Amino acid sequence: MLLRLATLLLLSVTLSCANKELIKPGEPIDSAYEKSIAFYEKEEYSDAAYGFDLVTRMGRGTTYAKEAQFLLAESYFKNKQYLLAASEYERFISYYPQDERRQEVEFNRALCYYQQSPRYRLDQGPTMRAIELFQLFNNNYPNSPFIDESAQKIDELRNKLARKTFESGQFYLRTLRYKAATIYFDQTIDQYPETRWAESALLKIIETYVSYAQQSIQSKQLERYNLAVENYEKFLQLFPQSMLRSEAESYYLQAISEIRKLEPVASTN
Questions:
Q1: Where exactly are the structural domains of the chain?
Q2: E strands within the chain?
Q3: How distant, in Å, are the alpha carbons of 23, 162, 179, 259 from that of 201?
Q4: How open is the CA angle 52-74-20, to the nearest 5 degrees?
């Protein structure tokens, strides 16, 4: 009996405390804000976000609303609800463009899209948006303490895009669609020359033209072997110290050997 009474008393106290924490309809804005802060400090970000959202609606034009808008975005971000966080950071920038925290907000907005960036095989819309926002951040705040991290994120994301393009080339090479393969390998080099995939893509172009020539009618072979040679020379110019050089050279020597066989035939035609 005593145990049951103690349990009921504890439950009553718990519910009473919980009720005190809840934000009620018509509650003064200062009280609603303080309760939201309490949730935020306890890392109960879903409840904090609910409260800050109410405060932004209740107190438009007040300091409470401004702080609540910032903390609403932060609550979503800390709760890993990045799509919602990005939207609320956007709203903060729109409402309070002169706020001293704008630099931090713009960086966090870019991080939201970075966190949404999927594996390279999937649609890369969030990846491209993140790169756009990080580049905009770097242009606007060249002396920011976040500038190095922003640049690293751009490099990481561009490598992901480069890999996606490179793997498309690989797919077409595997399926013997050589022309499409060269297009994607060329795109990898042209659009992402600073990434590690550019070097591999140029090697693959050499391989592709050798394979393409082997599968071509005789009148097209010489042209395609010569393209393999041209791209080998390009490879030497761009990546003279490459670990892939010996592999590239093996394709080059194969192409040269075939060219020597074909040139006499071509000259008699």
A1: 23-99
A2: none
A3: 58, 10, 14, 23
A4: 35
